[in-house]
Design goal:
CATH class of one domain: Alpha Beta
Organism: Paraburkholderia hiiakae
Largest sheet: 6 strands, mixed
Main location: membrane
Protein name: GTPase Der
Pfam family, one: MMR_HSR1
Strand content: 5-15%
Order of helices and strands: HHEHEEHEHEHEHHHHHHHHHHHHH
InterPro entries: GTP-bd (IPR006073), Mitofusin_fam (IPR027094), P-loop_NTPase (IPR027417)
Length: 513
Amino acid sequence: MNPFEQYKSLLEQAAPVAMRYHPDAEAIIAEWQERIQKQKIHVMLFGAYNAGKSTLINALVGREVAKAGDVPTTDVVDFHEWDGHMLLDTPGVNAPIAHEEISLEQLQRADLIVFVLRQEDQDASDIMNRIFELLEQNRPIFIVLNYEDGDPAHIEAIQARFTHMLLTYAGRRGFDKAALGTVPTILMNVKSACRARLENKAVLLEHSRFDVFMLRFREWLVQYNSEKQLLQQIYAGLERSLLQTVSASIVREATPQGDMQEVDAQIGHITREYRLLTNAASSKIRAELTLRRPMISEAIAQGGSRDTVMAALTQVGESVSEIVQTWLEKELKQNVKGRIGAALVADGLELPKGSDAGGSEFGNKMLDAALGGMKGVHKEHVQTLLEFGRKLKIPGLKGRWTKTLGRWADKAAPVIQVVAVLAEVAVDYYGEERDVQESQDRTLQRGQWLDEAYSQLYSGLMQSVTDVIAHVQLEDLQPVEARRSELRAKLGASDKDRSDWAALTLAFQDVAF
């Protein structure tokens, strides 16, 4: 879920407790909900009047919310909510003059721009000049080239032709050609994507390249610091105006409950430490992949076969996976519990029972299996270990069905399999470089390919690491959460509120991109 949507949901959960302890809580929450609503990033779809803007919005939303047709159907700006963002459907370029003025006026207020053009529009000077006017203004722009012909060879030719046109216009306008490599350009059959989404046709969805578009589009959306900064600003304001004030009020009214406070503190420190570990893992993966970008670039520059490129990507994925696996194993087995223990000791508390720094024998075997999964341990091996733990009546595994354990085992699937699948998508999308007109065209395409490969390798590696961390965190939290449930059942209303508010505060802190 989008982080801003998470804040809205958490505020709704917080309202009943907050209103019992803060006289202005209802007004404060309403004000924050309105601010979050208004501060949504506005993504404007821009382009010719029948390029497929409304159809793309319908594909994103998953239902027909925008009018689409071959003649101008939009004469005002329509707003559609999607994943915590606002999609703006506007009259197109080359629409009636009054309609076009509406688009240009809205363009000045838009945060991000998705420029949609048909494959026949790539030769239209007014369309290409519009693109470069936005680029010269340093506007964030994502280009969707809407094609109709599904022949892979034709798609590749369309890509090469459009790349050539971008470079040609860049030369004419004196625009830095190297900067074009940072502009996401995705080919997609928008009409097929919309139909697939509305009719839930997975094969057609993949054929339309909607999955490739979504992967790149989401990466593009979250890279802008303004969203991250806004998230930080919202949390800081919520902390000052609501979280701290309600917490202080509850503490004044609640009867001190030593055991419950200790358990809440244990949960807080465990959650906080694993959140920091996840952030550190993200930085580690990015740093290691950055060091290996030349390897990926070289494989692409050589123009090798699919197998050659896949082998290079797999080698990069394996090398990074091995380094991160070794680092993560040390963090989880030696450092994390020590840091949690030190933080608890500083608060005059102890580690939860059974959470010694070395971990239990079974817990370490579980961790070994999860970490080993990053190097190729099969799902069946992990499931066997989980079932063994259930037979030993390990807390949390007792009574679980084999089907459930199978789902857990899926989380330890080899990261290289994930990387291979993601890399296959990238190879299918860009295809081999054939019959490209100029060396500059190849350079630009390789740059876009490199960004795509880097992004997908990161996503695959990070997903695997996140699954391992989440699994270990769950194991650490399980006995503490069980203890919390036992104690909570014996508490009075105000003490329950204090404990629930502490949990909500942690949930607010955990919201992130």
